[in-house]
Design goal:
This protein has ten helices and eleven strands. Strand 2 and strand 3 form a beta hairpin. The protein has one domain: Rossmann fold (3-Layer(aba) Sandwich). The chain has a seven-stranded mixed β-sheet with strand order 6-5-4-7-8-11-10, sandwiched between helices. The protein has a four-stranded antiparallel β-sheet with strand order 1-2-3-9. It is globular, with a radius of gyration of 19 Å. The longest helix has 26 residues. With about 280 residues, the chain is an alpha/beta fold.
Amino acid sequence: MAYNGNCIVCSNPDSRILFDFDDSMKVMECRNCGLVYVNPINSQEAANLYNEEYFQGYVENYKDYRVKQFSRGIETIHNYIPPGKVLDIGCALGFFLDLANEKGWYTYGVEISEYAARHISSRHNVFVGELAEAKFPDKFFDLITLWDTIEHVANPPELLLEAHRILKEDGLLFVNLPNKDDLFLKIKSTLYRMMGAKVVNLKRHFIHHIYYFSPATIEKLLNKCGFCIIKMDLNVDDLALTGANKNGCLTIAKTTLKSVCYLTEKMWKRKRNEILVYARHY
């Protein structure tokens, strides 16, 4: 789906180019609300990223970290809602659903990667494809989770409206996502410009992430789709420090910069790199 000219958050048509990587990919910023997004959006290209090779690297580098993150998350979620039916959108290899099942939840997942879904279909109810294609009943789920997913989706409003339809009136929506104001991303963007696009590979961020939200823009989008935020946290996600390869001067410099940013973000809340949102129906 190509960008139609209006911001998905505030419907404003006025935007500016932040980065122009090549003829096929530009990064835009809404002049009104500050939403950052890739233009044009190629949803099929995004789906192709999540293949067997991607998930093998995911397991090798990030599984232990993710399990810890999901364990903290499910404990916090239980402060708001008891176990029932949970849907994890973008469930990947099912690490969160495994933990939820152990805690007494009836587990469902939606995943665009056939490779990932095939590996967990014996443990969970998994639909391969987009959420709207699954055609779940109205008000079916007690909890819907989006772990690092919404920034990868071609049409977030469509996804959230469908989530609103299938979530119970007293159900809970949990979303975690990167913060547009992340200090490390700001520094990396500055270095990219200063070095004339040499050394720093900024394009990689936007190949994987179609949208970058701030706390303000994700709240506006959720409100637009019928959700009211009951709690929002800014956290320091140390995923960037996980499994760091310290070979080579450039990699050592990059790891050092990430470590400095991590410590700075701990003290500077607005520049933390992860947004955690808990929301209910209006």
